[in-house]
Amino acid sequence: MRVLIASDKFKDSLTAGQACAEMAVGVRCAQPTWSVEQCPLTDGGEGFAVILTEAVGGEWVVCRVTGPRGAEVEAGFGVIETKLLPAAVLRRLGCASGGQLAVIEMAAASGLALLRPDERDVWRTDTRGTGELIAAAAERGVEGILLGVGGSATSDLGLGALGMLGLELCNEHGQLMTSGAPLKWPRVVSLKAERLRKLPPIWIACDVTNPLLGPRGAVTVYGPQKGLESEALVKLEAQSARMMVLLCASCGVDAGLAETPGAGAAGGIAFGLMAATGARLVPGFELVSDWLRVEERLAAADLVITGEGRFDDSSLQGKGPGSLVRAAVALGKPVHVFAGRVDAQETPGVTLHEVSPRDVPLAQALAKAGAWLRQRTEKTFNPG
């Protein structure tokens, strides 16, 4: 029996790699003769850069950068020889084999997980650290940069990052401002792009289709998830529209760019990088699938196991494990899904397993997620 274990992270408890490893132990304890292959998944958030770098044997570069609230944090990025990438990835990016590609995840420098719940405030967070990672990668002489933008703590249109790359945010006295956080925006009267550094091509791995502004925009859709209430949403939306106009004017691009599907990703950093650097959006799940050769692995497997922190009906309409489930079912592979919480209807060919007892407090469930996942997996596949 050939088993493919391809899990996403269990948010706030297990990385994708840890989840795969726990399930692999459970399977091997239950069925020692089965062949088990692990393939951690990523949606562009935490783990994106590490998973993709390790998958092709790239180099990991550690950096100290500015966190979302200004404190220094340790982050890093991968450097990969493009000749090691699958041809499908090179075609998707439109780049040639023979150089180096840097892989960065925004969450490592500007992510929500870096902050305590009481520190999460999009008025005071910015993306300076992500800009510092991009600058450090460019200094390595790479031919391109791939940026995953999941899990952000910010809604600054990427102005913090662009400030680290040479964009000048000026106040009414012509003085430069060091932070791109929205709390500072009322003092910004001009943006100057003349000193933006020259960068290699940037690709943004992104699966959301939200524009920058409006009822489906970054503030309206994702602001409440980051703690904003109705009155604050209206205020930040208005300020975002003003800064959008300033950035487009300074970079000489049409304001219609803000309507591009995906421009609202990660608090608008996708829009900011497109406007100022010419960055391009690429479908995140398809890119990761090509990179990890998921289709080939599914075809070779007799049994597919996946998981994530919460699996509900919307999971099957989204990316990550839901897309993996649909692909495996289409190939006629039996699928088992393990999740901390399951709120999805049964699907033909798919067996759902809820790992955490419903009566256990969340903090305890998160702390025991690894042990419970391993035990539940072993029990599921133990014939006794």
Automatic annotation (TrEMBL):
GO biological process: organic acid phosphorylation
Pfam families cross-referenced by the UniProt entry: Gly_kinase (PF02595)
Lineage: Bacteria, Pseudomonadati, Verrucomicrobiota, Opitutia, Opitutales
SUPFAM superfamilies tied to this protein: Glycerate kinase I
Keyword terms of this UniProt record: Kinase, Transferase
Family: Belongs to the glycerate kinase type-1 family.
Taxonomic superkingdom: Bacteria
Mitochondrion found in the keyword field: no
Coiled-coil stretches: none
Molecular function per GO: glycerate kinase activity
Name of the protein in its database record: Glycerate kinase
Keyword NADP: no
